[in-house]
Amino acid sequence: MTFNELNLSAPLLKAVSEAGYETPSPIQASAIPPVLEGRDLMGCAQTGTGKTAAFALPMLDRLSGAAPRKKGAIRALVLTPTRELALQIGESFAAYGKYLKLRSTVIFGGVGQTPQVEAIKKGVDILIACPGRLNDLIGQGYIDLANIEIFVLDEADRMLDMGFFKDVTRIIDKVKNRKNLGLFSATISQEVMTVSWMYQRDEVEITVEPKQEDRPDIDQFSITCTPLEKAETSLRLIRSQGYERVMIFCNTKHMCQRLCDEFQRAGLDCDCIHGDIRQSQREKTMQRYRDGKLAVLIATDVASRGIDVDDVDCVINYDVPEENEYYVHRIGRTGRAKKKGVAWSIVSNFPEKARLDDICKYCNFTIQPMVMDKDGNLTPEEVKAPVTPKRRFR
Question: What predicted TM-score, i.e. pTM, was given to this entire model?
């Protein structure tokens, strides 16, 4: 299948071609036709499979072919959990819709609201928003959702898992005249099913299972050390293997900042992003990383989705994630665009070892334990066979 067969308008096909897209991904080929028809949809596909284009392209097509909006009326809403993901979606809409007379803008918390309010007052067709700032501006009377025709929840599982369930349902309840609701997610959690049951009507359900040939090519390893050796082990790993662009994930903001400070003292070109850092600084850090001016980015799971960088050499789980899905999203930052990727997990105690074993079983992954000497040389760890206890006879 080609994009020409999806019945998209000529301006969209031109923009898609200029973006370098040749054939639609499975989620795009499956989701675009029903969204063009105005059907409610639940789309489930792993991260990095092109879900943004799967809802952005038909949304732009429908809005461009419909009657002009009322003055100041917002016609489409995309709700997303994190600031980074909101900005990335905004960039995608700008790229796909550059030949259309449609306006879009992005709103999120952590920055002053004045520029965002001014953009909305000028007139917006498509609003990309995070739940907190959206509810704030609705409460202040700057945003009216009465004319919303198309509503999409992107990364719905992550958003609802982050505690936005009440915020999300409060927003959906305000969209009285919507023609369709799209839920796009990497996993179908109980919360996602609940929202679908409450608000979707005769929905189309699409689940795209990754084929073996479509799976990211990621070699996965683990290293065991003591808790006090984790930082030194990670640093030696990066330097000995010559990784030029690395993402390191920690479970907490405190550990993220602490590790960043320690690496900077050791002379490593690194920076971090987490919830306590100002949004303007987070954007600068992400831009430096995308531009290749920053070698190592340390982040909490807030950044495990929505970072679209195609040439990440290596992902390091400084802390083994607490949820199986988090591991999948973390390592999905490497091995993108058909390139080879590497993922390392630093294990320092028995609970982390048990969590990693559980991840292997859940995801059907093979994670090779390795041993690293003081010079940074790596060798496979010899896994000892379990000792069978002798039976005692009386």
Answer: 0.70
